[in-house]
Design a protein that fits this description.
Elements: E1 7-12, H1 16-27, E2 32-38, H2 42-52, E3 55-57, H3 60-66, E4 71-74, H4 81-90, E5 94-98, H5 105-118, E6 122-125, H6 132-142, E7 149-157, H7 172-175, H8 179-195, E8 199-207, E9 217-224, E10 229-235, E11 242-249, E12 252-257, E13 261-266, E14 269-274, H9 280-298, H10 306-325, E15 329-330
Parallel strand pairs: 1-2, 1-4, 2-3, 4-5, 5-6, 7-10
Antiparallel strand pairs: 7-11, 8-9, 8-15, 9-10, 11-12, 12-13, 13-14
Helix pairs in contact: 1-9, 4-5, 5-10, 6-8, 8-10
């Protein structure tokens, strides 16, 4: 039960993303308070707890058992998402979990069932749903201003093996995969948000740079439920940073990029729909946490449900399977005969 002083949150995992959650809580001081931080690295837990004025733990079970929590934010390596979420549900705690929901479909199902049985709110942090420019783009496309969506493309590049990344990102057992599961799930979510339809089938290919145990490159052709086809490219070797989506519609097109914002192109005229905003990711994390707090307090459904997140995971897993088999794969993981 949420107290009158706001949602009392414990954070499990004290890395870079956890810092964004703590900053978000500061923006929502009347609604959310971080009261405990846990990390197996005591120094990391102590540093983040000092910023939040919170208690320190190195064992999440000890933190749960100590009481004084309404909810937990889980920001740990992917393979630990399932066991810690199950422990939180058993402790009666609401859960905001970083994406991806899990590394295996069956684990995601278990997590959803456990939280439902415990009567706790379960939200998954597909934070792009809260980014102001992306919300503006989705609203513009949904308005029909440039007609129905026909095709789409999504391209992201980064240095996936950058030394600043946590080493578990490159561990297939702990990460569950590479750039597809970590970066590609953002891209899948973004395409579904902008196209306005879920992905149902995937044809894909993955590759890894020499000496790296997880994939660093991936390309795919996605089929959405409404018939739209989209291309997806996530690459982690050599290219400068890019984050750009293009949605081609019956009467024009929309381009969304991290550096230029949202532009509409229609009849030879370019119009800026939304300018890039400084600090918009900080605002997105705050909006996500506010939505989670509202859902916990009201017993309502969060904007990003675990069922939706399971579909995003399913698309990523279908891409992996297609890369192995060379065929078209349904998001549920079932290979199909029809052509893309």
């Amino acid at each position: 039960m949420v107290t009158t002083s706001g949602l009392r949150v414990g954070i499990v995992g004290a890395g870079t993303i956890a810092e964004l959650h703590v900053a978000a809580a500061r923006q929502l001081a009347s609604q959310v308070k971080v009261v405990a931080v846990c990390d197996v690295r005591a120094d990391a837990a102590e540093k983040l707890a000092a910023e939040a004025g919170a208690r320190v733990y190195t064992d999440h079970l000890a933190m749960f058992a100590a009481g004084g929590l309404d909810a937990v934010v889980i920001t740990v390596p992917h393979a630990l998402h399932a066991p810690i979420t199950l422990d939180a549900a058993a402790a009666g705690l609401h859960v905001l979990l970083e994406k991806p929901i899990a590394t295996r479909h069956e684990d995601g199902v278990r997590m959803i069932e456990a939280c439902r049985a415990a009567g706790v709110t379960f939200a998954v942090g597909h934070v792009l749903r809260f980014v102001p420019t992306l919300r503006a783009a989705a609203g513009y496309l949904a308005s029909g201003a440039v007609g129905e969506v026909m095709v789409a493309s999504e391209r992201r590049t980064a240095d996936y093996t950058d030394a600043s990344r946590p080493r578990w990102f490159l561990d297939p057992e702990m990460a569950g995969g590479g750039i597809v599961l970590n970066v590609g799930t953002h891209s899948i979510d973004k395409l579904q948000m902008l196209v306005g339809s879920p992905v149902t089938h995937v044809t894909g290919h993955v590759a890894a740079r020499p000496g790296v145990a997880v994939e660093t490159e991936a390309v795919a052709l996605l089929r959405h439920a409404d018939g739209t086809r989209a291309t997806l490219s996530v690459t982690g070797t050599g290219l400068p940073f890019t984050d750009e989506t293009e949605i081609v519609c019956a009467e024009g097109a929309v381009r969304i990029s991290r550096g230029e914002g949202v532009w509409s192109f229609r009849g030879g005229v370019a119009t800026q729909i939304a300018a890039p905003e400084s600090g918009e990711m900080n605002r997105a994390f705050a909006a996500q946490l506010a939505d989670f707090a509202r859902a916990c307090e009201e017993g309502a459904v969060p904007l990003v449900t675990p069922e939706y997140a399971l579909g995003v995971l399913g698309t990523a897993l279908a891409l992996y399977e297609s890369g192995r088999t060379g065929g078209v794969v349904a998001v549920e993981g079932r290979a199909v005969k029809e052509e893309m």
